[in-house]
Design a protein that fits this description.
The structure holds 2 protein chains of 2 kinds. Chain A is mainly alpha-helical. Chain A has 14 helices and no strands. The chains are: A mainly alpha, B mainly alpha.
């Protein structure tokens, strides 16, 4: 067991290195000269050729690529991501940590919506397969996969906030502000999980242990909850856990619809302002979260499900 | 295969429906009642009328005409994305699956890295790097999606590589390109068609989302995502304006998804029961 976990953690390292290398290449591919940008950031009044050469030497831009990459990784480990291009008085770390909580709250509350709605609906869809309820849910699920999230957000704003005047249209600050954006984020993912739970349970129903439980004469409700649901939940919890970074990345569009002051809004604003260090750090952050969450839930799954451990070893 | 396809009512209906939409886009200048760019500020937010069947937008432009012209970028760009994706994925997947060894190693490691990245973030990163433009959006979509196709095609090629007809072909002295393109490609074409049809819906959603954020198709050009972006700004005064483009996206994407499902049923009757 221990060896498996250690192996799994070690296998994540090359992936993290690749992601960080991509991010590094990304900032080095931009058309502007970092030395010139550094001078502008320091608010040097006149930028001369000599000054640029001097700064190049000072920042170590003449060093080989690999050394610069290693130095950059070292800085990132010290949480030093440089300063924003558009507003030199702000560090990238400050910008990201200012916006991170908002996105985190939004992602978490939509995760709650996803779990609360998709688990029971998927469960009942599987139990009453091909019933009217199942068919209606399948129809809705099919429609939501075709609906763009931002349009759903706009319709919700119009219906709930403008027509009924129940919730604020945009911004943040209270729980009321949180409801509409998190429903919008959740809607795109709920359909996936309803389908996942439904199909998983239907697959489990065909297993031999269910037949045996039936032969033993157990109550149907006991079989459904204690056996089938319990077995399906393993996969679903892992899948939902791994999708947390996806939820955080998925908030980009919704944040812009609802003017939610999180990372997504920062990212889009940075794209328009060509504020490359912020974009780079954002990509690095989400990429790292992806790897970390995958690793975490892989390990959790291997602890929860002994069968997988045997397969690996 | 075609006979089974024609028997599948859903597939035929969806195919006909999408063909109609595409034709409407091609013949937009004839079908559209008004010029999609002609603005008339005095007649903004007009309701439904004979001259403006879906009303007018914030600049007094005919919404129906803009919807019909909007078919062009939506379908054309998504088809372009899929062509690029499949082309790139196909070449690399065939190479990786057919020539084992270092070629495969390099391609598959690249695929692993591409797939470990969240695709949405990659699109934004590429657009940020190359600048805000439609071409870059297409490029970004191709760059993030090719890995899926490369992996799938490689798996399929491995499945067919040691089949007898391929071994025989090599025995009688067929060249490698001949085997790749005349034997392996047709064997996996049907499965790819299904996947591509399902992914066109994804491409349409993705491109319209970026246009909505202002990163893709730019404002005066009639594109459904960009139209929704304009509608968002006048939501309180004229909410009707956002209904038509949104519905259009839903219907077209749903049609592509249904067509993809129907194609899969037609090609592989075993999977129908699930």
């Amino acid at each position: 067991m221990k060896t498996y976990i250690v192996k799994r953690i070690l296998s994540a390292i090359p992936l993290l290195l690749m992601i960080s290398f991509l991010c590094f290449v990304f900032i080095n591919m931009i058309p502007s000269d970092p030395a010139e940008v550094a001078l502008r950031v320091r608010q040097t009044p006149v930028i001369t050729e000599d000054a640029i050469l001097q700064v190049r030497e000072e920042l170590g831009l003449n060093d080989p690529y690999l050394i610069r990459y290693l130095r950059w990784v070292g800085n990132c480990l010290k949480l030093d991501f440089g300063v924003s291009y558009t507003n030199p008085s702000r560090t990238v770390l400050g910008e990201i940590s200012r916006c991170f909580p908002a996105t985190f709250i939004l992602a978490m509350s939509s995760l709650v919506f996803v779990i609360v709605l998709s688990l029971p609906v998927g469960f009942f869809c599987a139990v009453y397969k091909d019933s009217l309820f199942d068919r209606i849910v399948r129809g809705i699920v099919f429609m939501t996969t075709a609906m763009p999230a931002y349009w759903v957000g706009l319709l919700l704003i119009w219906l709930v906030s403008i027509r009924w005047d129940l919730l604020p249209t945009s911004g943040s600050g209270s729980i009321k502000h949180l409801i509409l954006p998190s429903i919008t984020v959740a809607l795109t993912y709920i359909s996936t999980y309803i389908r996942l739970i439904r199909n998983n349970m239907l697959e489990n129903m065909k297993e031999d242990y269910v037949l045996y439980a039936n032969v033993r004469g157990l109550k149907q409700s006991t079989i459904l909850v204690r056996h089938i649901l319990k077995n399906s939940l393993h996969t679903c919890i892992v899948a939902i856990g791994m999708s947390v970074p996806q939820l955080m990345a998925g908030t980009i569009v919704v944040e812009n619809v609802f003017a939610w002051p999180g990372l997504g809004k920062l990212c889009i604003a940075s794209i328009f302002n060509r504020d490359y260090p912020v974009i780079q750090t954002y990509v690095l952050l989400i990429g790292t979260l992806f790897v970390v969450f995958n690793l975490l839930f892989d390990i959790i799954q291997s602890i929860a499900d002994p069968r997988l451990r045997r397969e690996v070893s | 295969m075609w006979r089974r396809f024609l028997k599948n009512k859903m597939a035929v209906i969806m195919m006909a429906f999408l063909a109609t939409i595409a034709l409407a886009g091609v013949f937009a200048p004839i079908l559209a009642p008004n010029d999609p760019y002609a603005n008339n500020i005095l007649n903004k937010f007009a309701g439904f009328s004979l001259q403006y069947p879906l009303g007018t937008d914030q600049l007094g432009r005919c919404i129906l005409s803009r919807m019909i012209y909007g078919i062009r970028p939506t379908l054309f760009l998504s088809l372009l994305t899929m062509t690029g994706t499949i082309g790139l994925g196909c070449i690399l997947g065939l190479l990786a699956g057919y020539f084992r060894g270092p070629v495969e190693e390099i391609i598959m490691r690249a695929v692993d890295v591409m797939m470990s990245f969240p695709s949405q973030i990659m699109v934004f990163a590429v657009v940020a790097l190359l600048g805000v433009d439609v071409r870059n959006v297409i490029l970004a979509n191709v760059l993030i999606k090719w890995a899926w196709y490369a992996r799938m095609i490689r798996t399929n090629v491995m499945k067919y590589r040691d089949k007898n007809f391929v071994l025989f072909s090599r025995c009688v002295g067929s060249g490698e390109p001949f085997i790749l393109f005349r034997h392996l490609l047709p064997s996996i074409a049907s499965e790819m068609a299904v996947l591509a049809t399902l992914d066109i819906g994804w491409a349409i959603l993705n491109i319209s989302t970026l246009s909505f954020l202002g990163l893709g198709v730019q404002a005066p050009i009639p594109e459904w995502g960009a139209m929704l972006n304009e509608a968002k700004n006048v939501m309180t005064t004229n909410p009707v304006q956002m209904i038509a483009p949104g519905l259009a996206i839903v219907i077209v994407v749903a049609a592509f998804n249904l067509l993809g499902d129907a194609l899969r049923d037609a090609l592989d009757p075993k999977e129908v029961e699930v």
